[in-house]
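Task 17 of the worksheet. Students: predict the tertiary structure of the chain below and write it out as structure tokens. Keep your answer in the requested format; marks are given for formatting as well as content.
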Amino acid sequence: MTPPVFLTGAGELDQDRVLLSGPEGRHAAVVRRITVGETVDLVDGAGTRARCVVTDVAKDSVVCAVRERHVEPRPSPAITVVQALPKGDRGELSVEVMTEAGVDAIVPWSAERCVTRWRAERAAKSLAKWRATAREAAKQARRSRIPDVADLAATRDVTALLAAADLGIVLHEDTEERLSAVKLPEGGAGDAPASGIVIVVGPEGGFTDAELRAFDEAGAVRALLGPTVLRTSTAGVAALAVLQARSGRW
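Model answer:
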């Protein structure tokens, strides 16, 4: 089994000895009950991973000696999922499973037919939950990179993402082109989360005609995921799995 992963601050992994304190240190010492001599991985959330040996454990902190470190390359092509806001806690569910499956960026989208609305104070709290979910799921999946969770997007923002992408895909049941057959872009996609492949997952109520026209004009292709209709909270991870396998990321 691979070592447990804990998150550090930016630049901390440049040192030979790292003090893991705060919530992460408390989790390591109290919840995971890490012991002296145990091997752990420390990551900075931006691609740096350090294999470490624990040298000291206190009540709410752990000291780790770095044995080796490296920067893991960004997966290519980058894959961004635009996720229409699901109902209830299914938003966090979709973020969790897509993070575990390797998504690079997630864009919450306030589609016209979304039942859930993020307004004022609720928007900030909901976005914070999505980001915290991505952070915890990334550690659980032993990832060195935490996927970016963008601010809430309007349809015009999604249209701009699709126009800038190497390939924009709108998951839709009213098409004969299957996602498993869509022509993928050749070569790497760069570092920008918005480049590469952008997948749009619509709300439970479906896309409006105006949204589909805007996405068509941005150059997106419509793709059928399969013979069944998936919920908006699970369609993203299913599409992600198909594209990761086809692009060689898996």
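Marker's comment: The longest strand covers residues 48-57. Residues 188-194 have pLDDT under 50 and may be disordered.
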